[in-house]
Amino acid sequence: MSDTSSVIEARRRRVNKVISFPTRIANFFAPITPKPIRNAFKKLDRKVDGAISFFFRHYGKTKFMVAMSKKAQVMGLEDLFLAGPKAFFYFFMYYLIRDTILYIIIPIYFAKLTSGS
Q: What distance in Å separates the CA atoms of residue 35 and residue 25, rounded to the nearest whole number?
């Protein structure tokens, strides 16, 4: 009995230790980044109310984009557009620009960088 309970407890500890991808990246670079640079980044992040770390934690989304995504899921796109066409346009453009950069421009750049021609 004690063996199975210890296995279950070990699994619970492992599941609770799952860390998000941006946090793992930050933890990877933290030991090799000089302390003055880390302190400067933290100071800048505090000046902008944590917007930089939020941006990395949410995979390139701003607080506005996260809020609008939740509204879009709850209200639906048509009702969201009717509620505020200007905000809907900004939301759409942010996603269009972000996704274009992430999924088109960066892969093309890396493909050219790694190809022989």
A: 17
